[in-house]
Structure formats: structure tokens, C-alpha cells
Amino acid sequence: MSRWPVQGLTAAVFALAGLIFVTSANTAKGTDIRTDSSLLKLSDLIQQRSDNNAELDESTASVRADIDTLARRDDGSTRAEDAELDALEKAAGTTKVTGEALSVTLNDAPPDATAKPGYPEPQPNDLVIHQQDLQAVVNALWQGGARGIQVMDQRLISTSAVRCVGNTLILQGRVYSPPYKVTAVGDREDLRQALDGSTAIQNYQLYVKAYGLGWKVEEDDKLTLPGYSGTVDLHYAQPVE
Asked: What number of CA atoms fall less than 13 Å from residue 29's CA on the CB side?
């Protein structure tokens, strides 16, 4: 048997090994090879879109104010019709509301959180705020007679959806990280009673006690919530022809 085929095979093996080493080096480049830079780029894109949406919201609010001013200047309506329109705008959340208020702030547990005596060691999901926690607070405040609710810096309307992806909140096209603040204008005693009577919030309080999740309630004698300034157009799926 000739030695040349064996030598050729050996050379091919070494060439393949060298290619693997070069590929690995180019991939790692001195950093953690498990780091997915595409995720970082996606995070940057989401934040950029969130900032753009915030700017568009401000522009929309300014234009809407100009339109409202022009419409009210000489719209030919009666006082009764104007009063009915004002009531509808308040119910829709597009105008500011002022009164005594109550605010609730929720936050993730500290990074070094451990279980208090008598409780099992926490799982990762036990230490972060979830969508159900925010929804429980919002629902309780509505039930307590809130005349208006704001989550972070945005006023809620009937089509607002409080959604969490991972440990971030996505609300009306913008992205937020904890701590999350929910503010309601209404009778403070009624609002507190609604919070205390919520079964979902009582369950959340167990995690506050066991693992140190954040929970803070504050009161204001007088606070003004701005009106909703975003689009009110409905977006829905359409069948493909």
C-alpha cells in the first residue's frame, strides 16, 4: 500500500483542525462565546422604538390640543351638547383629571434576596414583577372607583393593555423597567379598601413578606393626571385574501 494516500489523509485532518481553531477564534474574539450580540441589538432597537413612540405621543398631544381649541372656537353646539361632550371625554380618559390620589409602586426583589425564615427558597420567577401583579393593582383601583389611572407616565384608556415581556412592561408602544408606579385619582379611602380586599394583591403580599418584593403605597391631597395623548385608532387583524 502506498504511503501517499495516508500522508494525504493526515494532511487533510490537520487542515480541518486548523480551520476549526480559526473559526472558533474568529467567533470568540476574546469574549464569551455564549454571548448573543443579536439580543443586545434587539434590545437597543426596542428602546429606540420606545423613545420614538414617546416623541410621537408628545407631537400628537400638541396637535390634538390645537384641534380641540379650533373645534371649540365656533362649533355651533349648545351648552347641553358641550356638557355631554365633556362628560364623554372624561370617561374616555382624553382630558386631565384632578383630585386626591393614591399611588402604588411595585418592584423586583433585591438581587441578593433570600427566603425569610419559614419560607422555601425562591425560584427566579418569585423575585420579579409579573403582568398579573400590575393588572391586579389596576383592576383593584378601578373597582375602588378611580376616576383616572396612570401607569408610569401614561394615562390608561379603555383600550389600554398592560403587558409584560420578561421583566419589562410594554404599554401603548413604549417599554418600561421596574420599579412600576400606578397612580389613581379618586377617593383614597375607597381605593385603599379596594387594594386591601383584592385576593390577587393579598397573594402578592405573601411574596413581599417572603422574598422582599417591592410594595409602597403613597397618598396625595391633590394631583392632576394628564389626558391620554396617543392614538385612539383600533388595530385589528385582517384575513388574507
From this structure: 4
> Using CA atoms, how far apart are residues 106 and 109, in angstroms rounded to an integer?
10
User: Bridge-partner residues for 104, per DSSP?
Assistant: 182, 217
Residue 132 identity (one-letter amino acid) = Q
Give the 3-state secondary structure of 8-64: HHHHHHHHHHHHHHHHHHHHHCCCCCCCCHHHHHHHHHHHHHHHHHHHHHHHHHHHH
Is the Cβ–Cβ distance between 108 and 214 less than 8 Å? yes
Cell output for 104: 402604588
pTM of model > 0.90: no
- pLDDT tens per residue across span 122-171: 999 999 999 999 999 999 999 999 999 999 999 999 889 899 988 899 99
Secondary structure of residue 6 in the 3-state scheme: helix
Could you list the beta-strand ranges (E) of the chain.
Answer: 97-107, 148-151, 154-155, 163-165, 168-171, 174-176, 180-185, 214-225
Q: Is the pLDDT of residue 181 over 50?
A: yes
Please tell me the distance from the alpha carbon of residue 137 to that of residue 120, in angstroms, as a whole number: 26
Please name every residue paired with 98 in a beta bridge, in sequence order, or none if there are none: 224
User: pLDDT tens across 29-76, in order?
Assistant: 444 433 445 445 555 666 666 666 666 656 665 666 665 565 556 566
Q: How many C-beta atoms lie closer than 10 Å to residue 217's C-beta?
A: 14
